[in-house]
Write a sequence for this structure.
């Protein structure tokens, strides 16, 4: 034998340094991932509501009779209704649709009526809806002629 130690591997100090660096990187990454996940969930809820508003408005314009969109915060759902007879009696179209991100809160019950001439009125609540998730709120506003905007 030549007297040299031919062992291969890492020393305990090298392993401890690598572990420390990994833990520091994870400590930085976890809050970023949580914040990003919260933002995606908030945006999912907001996108669902704005898409429903735009689709309901489009249906009223295309079909030529009034449609309503009722947003219910307690159940975190929305319901689309129409009045094909134009007599003020609205009937549900399908069943209520859940809003994604069940942990999101919606500011107030709101019913928007979309008329075939493009006009929009709030028959209950206001022309804007606040959606909050983990302390971050976005407000969805609808103009009297159906322009939907979202503000942080």
């Amino acid at each position: 034998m030549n007297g040299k130690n031919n062992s291969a591997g890492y020393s305990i100090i090298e392993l401890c340094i690598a572990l420390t660096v990994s833990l520091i990187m994870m400590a930085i990454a976890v809050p970023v991932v949580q914040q990003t996940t919260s933002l995606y969930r908030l945006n999912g809820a907001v996108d669902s509501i704005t898409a429903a508003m735009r689709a309901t408005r489009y249906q009223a314009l295309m079909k030529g009779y009034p449609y309503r969109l009722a947003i219910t915060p307690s159940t975190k759902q929305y319901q689309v209704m129409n009045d094909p007879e134009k007599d003020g009696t609205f009937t549900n179209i399908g069943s209520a649709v859940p809003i994604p991100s069940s942990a999101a809160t919606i500011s107030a019950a709101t019913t928007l009526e979309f008329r075939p001439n493009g006009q929009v009125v709030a028959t209950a609540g206001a022309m804007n809806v606040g959606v909050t998730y983990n302390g971050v709120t976005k407000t969805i506003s609808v103009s009297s002629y159906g322009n939907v905007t979202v503000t942080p």
Summary: The helical segments are 12-63. DSSP finds one helix and ten strands in the chain. The mean pLDDT is 92. The longest helix spans residues 12-63.
